[in-house]
């Protein structure tokens, strides 16, 4: 049911619809979101938080109206449209088969437990042997044999644990890959079949068109829970014209996540792209601002160079490596600047939105040596960030395991069971007149979005980085800068620190 937007009458978008994966919310969407929040605050104040999508349309009488839906399992009331998932009969669904993952996880835990238990026992025996040696009364051969046994067994159990860990990761990766590929291929086939069978696609019910296919949860779980396709389907069925779209967070935040109340978020490709490809066919969309090649004429900013290494100061908004977007990336620039370089040059990456030191190797030997240094954790980094507010502690360590949120790529989440360890040291440097803290981060691990989520999450600092459009609030840029990197130079053996002064 369309709700009228009484205070938004002058909308001129030249027939161009919101680009769903990167946008600034249209004024009409902001007004619609305000009305939805008022409704939720009154009628759903004790319910769980949720992503809420709104679609503003030009109605038959040329006035503006909107419809809304919650990206959740439940629908609070008739004020909201139902997603495709909420319309599905339960008997159509079959559970995911995660048996291999669960088995690998149990084997990993068992191997870990045996290794840690034996490690503690070996430590106690070592202390006992030291006491015997100190007393002067001991059997030398027996002590040597005991020490050798502990050393060998410890290595064996450690290797077994590492192999179990690798097996679990392989099982999880294989499962995700197979599921993702299945989704990709199946949806391509289904939608193409529908195009052949029915030329008036958007005026038909998608559930009706796909009625014979709705039998696999792994194909439907993430895709059909999305609110936006259902809203577009309703608009087309009603014969009205979509004007603008957006989604925002309302209510409490799940323990694994970091969201801002009332903050607008882009629609994720993982969950939306296949259906939106179907529903937005023929629509004129806004330009993707991220696809503008703003660094076409960028002059490389080199902060260090020798015969083996080169370090650039990557600007915020530039890709580290080639991606799907037709824009310049630093890796391609480096390869053009150093055509004689041997082997892969790139040693690490920075998020597109993050600025700062990015290190490249000029030869295979240096690349191999520094890759090993990164793997062993002997490369130290210092990041500078500006937080939205002041954290409760001035310094300390954050230890929160991270993993990918599979239905909201590229968002990460806190996951204590399956997440990989992530550790960050921090220190507040100063507080500005707005109450924003300038903080130094020293990551001990290098997980995707580690600093961003450790800053934003309630169990971390509870203060998002300014300009973080995934875990905080958008701004002119993400205020996160890789200021320094320190390591032992593979050729000279000397400790080397490379810096790029923070621009904020």
Structure description:
The structure is a single chain. The protein folds into two domains: 3-83 and 225-287, no CATH class; 291-499, Pseudouridine synthase (2-Layer Sandwich), CATH 3.30.2350.10. The longest helix is centred in the middle third of the chain and has 58 residues, at 140-197. The chain contains ten helices and 16 strands. With 504 residues, it is α+β, with helices and mostly antiparallel strands. Helix 2 (99-135) packs antiparallel against helix 3 (140-197) and helix 6 runs parallel beside helix 7 (269-279). Helix content is 35%, strand content 19%.
Shape by Cα distribution: globular
Cα(first) to Cα(last) distance is 47 Å
Q: Kindly report the average pLDDT value.
A: 85
Backbone CA Rg: 27 Å
Order of helices and strands: EHEEHHHHHEEHEEHEHEEEEEEHEE
Provide the CATH architecture of the largest domain: 2-Layer Sandwich
CATH H-level superfamily title of the largest domain: Pseudouridine synthase
Can you tell me the residue ranges where pLDDT is under 50 for at least 5 consecutive residues? 211-219
Work out the helix count: 10
Domain count, please report it: 2
**Major beta-sheet overview:** 9 strands, mixed
CATH fold title of the largest domain:
Pseudouridine synthase
Q: In percent, how helical is the residue content?
A: 25-40%
Features:
Pseudouridine synthase, 504 residues, 2 domains, 16 strands, 9-stranded mixed sheet, 10 helices, 5-stranded antiparallel sheet, globular, alpha+beta
């Amino acid at each position: 049911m369309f709700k009228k937007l009484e205070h938004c009458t002058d909308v001129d978008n030249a027939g161009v619809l919101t680009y769903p994966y990167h946008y600034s919310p249209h004024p009409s969407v902001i007004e619609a979101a305000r009305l939805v929040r008022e409704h939720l605050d009154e009628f759903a104040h004790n319910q769980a938080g949720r992503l809420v999508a709104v679609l503003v349309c030009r109605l038959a009488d040329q006035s503006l109206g909107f419809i809304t839906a919650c990206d959740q399992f439940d629908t609070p009331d008739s004020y909201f449209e139902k997603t495709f998932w909420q319309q599905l009969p339960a008997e159509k669904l079959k559970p995911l088969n995660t048996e291999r993952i669960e088995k690998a996880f149990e084997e990993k835990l068992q191997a870990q437990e045996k290794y840690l238990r034996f490690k503690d026992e070996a430590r106690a025996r070592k202390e006992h042997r030291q006491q015997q040696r100190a007393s002067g009364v001991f059997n030398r051969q027996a002590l040597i044999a005991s020490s050798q046994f502990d050393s060998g067994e410890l290595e064996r159990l450690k290797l077994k644990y590492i192999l179990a860990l690798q097996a679990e990761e392989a099982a999880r990766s294989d499962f995700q890959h197979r599921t993702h590929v299945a989704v990709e291929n199946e949806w391509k086939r289904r939608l193409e079949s529908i195009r052949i069978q029915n030329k008036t696609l958007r005026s038909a019910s998608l559930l009706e068109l796909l009625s014979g296919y709705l039998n696999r949860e792994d194909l439907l779980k993430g895709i059909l829970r999305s609110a936006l396709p259902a809203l577009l389907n309703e608009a087309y069925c009603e014969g009205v014209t979509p004007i603008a779209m957006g989604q925002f967070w309302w209510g409490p935040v799940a323990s694994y996540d970091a969201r801002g109340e009332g903050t607008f978020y882009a629609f994720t490709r993982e969950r939306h792209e296949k259906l939106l490809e179907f529903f937005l066919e023929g629509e004129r969309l806004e330009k993707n601002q991220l696809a503008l090649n703003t660094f076409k004429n960028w002059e490389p900013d080199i902060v260090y160079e020798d015969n083996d290494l080169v370090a650039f100061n990557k600007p915020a908004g530039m890709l580290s490596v080639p991606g799907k977007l037709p824009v310049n990336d630093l890796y391609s620039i480096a390869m053009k600047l150093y055509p004689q370089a041997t082997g892969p040059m790139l040693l690490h990456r920075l998020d597109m939105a993050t600025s700062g030191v990015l290190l490249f190797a000029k030869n295979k030997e240096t690349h191999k040596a520094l890759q090993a240094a990164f793997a062993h954790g002997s490369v130290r980094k210092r990041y500078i960030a500006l937080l939205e507010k002041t954290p409760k502690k001035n310094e300390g360590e954050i230890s929160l395991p991270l993993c990918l949120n599979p239905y909201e790529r590229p968002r990460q989440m806190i996951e204590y069971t399956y997440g990989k360890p992530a550790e960050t040291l921090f220190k507040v440097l100063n507080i500005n007149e707005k109450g924003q803290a300038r903080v130094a981060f020293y990551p001990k691990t290098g997980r995707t979005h580690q600093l961003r989520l450790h800053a934003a999450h309630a169990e971390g600092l509870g203060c998002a980085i300014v300009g973080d459009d995934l875990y905080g609030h958008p701004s002119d840029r993400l205020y996160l800068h890789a200021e320094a990197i320190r390591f032992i130079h593979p050729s000279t053996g000397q400790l080397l620190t490379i810096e790029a002064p923070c621009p904020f």
